Amino acid sequence: MIYADYNGSAPLCDDVREYLVKRINEGPYSNQNAIHSLGKKMMFGMEKCRRTLAKHLNCQTHQIIFNSGASEGIAQIFFSLLDERPSEKNIIITSGIEHSAVVQCCQRYQNKGYQIEYINTLDNGVIDLQHYQELIKKFSNQIALITSMAANNETGVIQPYQEIGKIAQENKVPFFCDTTQFIGKTEFNFDQSNIDYAVCSSHKIGALIGAGFIIAKDPTRLKPLILGGGQEKGLRGGTQNYIGIETMAVAMESFYNNKEKLNQVNESRLAFEQKIKEKFPEVAIMGDGAPRLATTTMIAYPGIHGQAVQIELESQNIFVTTSSACSDNKPETSRVLKAMKINDDIGRGVIRISFCLNANQELYDKIEDALTNAYNKLKKIQSY
Fold this sequence. Notes:
Layout: E1 2-3, H1 14-26, H2 37-57, E2 64-67, H3 70-81, E3 91-95, H4 100-111, E4 115-119, H5 129-139, E5 143-147, H6 161-170, E6 175-177, E7 197-201, E8 212-216, H7 242-257, H8 262-279, E9 284-285, E10 296-300, H9 306-314, E11 318-319, H10 335-339, H11 344-347, E12 350-354, H12 361-382
């Protein structure tokens, strides 16, 4: 079996799997907020994880707030920064390529009276910095929040988040960057990012599902979305998912210990794309020529439906998606691709192939063979 949907959810990385076997067998188990010695031991372990994450992501430990994942983090950031009713600052600047968790938060606050302004997206999937600057200049002191992702979950295109953040800082506007597909897929330095708020989900980096965190430059600006017993310094109620948190630290440590593999992963991906394009010149690579994650390819043969390709590959025990996992069941061009001005002939034909540091030329060669067979077979059907 070849599993190529790491952007949807990554399998447990080897180090996490080994850690869990020992952890589950040996314990300990307790409520880390208890004052007895076992609770204190658990709390010490959780705080050690916080230090590990802070070290690799170059932030301060107090800037990390543990939660259940990026969707919760996004909701809390919006809730914290946007009043129930807008004041004179009533503009949210976002892009047309954001994840649905951000899109729906924007829609919620639009219903509360906020105005949404969208940054244009260039044809290669990178947001238009010039248009972004025009929006900043046009709305000036009316802007309540700027939100733009670091890397797109469908195309893998990396956005100019540092430039976006720099301009936001100069205009004293909070900048939330959705880093869900960025952290743990490539190197990230929060201190140098110009980002005010970032998020992470455990299942995107090879850890147990159900944990995550916010990184906040100034955590005092956050308000608790979930009330409870004062955990996370009162910013997120509920007993922390300590085993999930532990696996996040193990997974992050594993990534940074093996980050030198990224260059080889990138070379294997590019070689795969080149071979497919040589065989099928009609094929389109989403974001081709733009900076992309080393681990992600989104590809389409015009006129051949992506779900048909997905079924053909699955019959050969290769698992891919046609867009993001959140919208994989919708047989239409995604809004991300529409923002890139991709027509339906291509947009409905995409499949997304996503790995992590496990990717190598052998895996890509097997996918290349399967995809070649699928395209040749479906081309014949298409011609009738």
